[in-house]
Amino acid sequence: SSPNIARRGPFVVEEKPGVRWWCACGLSASQPYCDGSHKGTGMAPLKVEIAQDGRIAWCGCKRSRTGAFCDGSTGPPDRAPRPGGLCRNRAPIGRRTGRFTIFAFAGQWAG
Length: 111
Fold this sequence. Notes:
Layout: E1 11-15, E2 18-22, E3 46-50, E4 54-58, E5 104-109
Antiparallel strand pairs: 1-4, 2-3, 3-5
């Protein structure tokens, strides 16, 4: 089954070093983090290790090609998504624009 779109746009959070569990199902009430709502869906959260302080643009649509990090796949709320995934007139967030810096390594899927 496909994940629920929690938000058409990123959850931008100032993070400290440590481990976070990114919600991949879109059902968590604690977005962008997992609260266990995925149980019974066949989906699981993604373990992300934050290496240093920084701003992270967590994916809200749950369709990013970069795992837990927003890549602009569904576009901003006021625009329809483009075929192929990238939003109109905009580079993927956290990649070409340099607008957000990702200080994390996406690790393993939890069971």
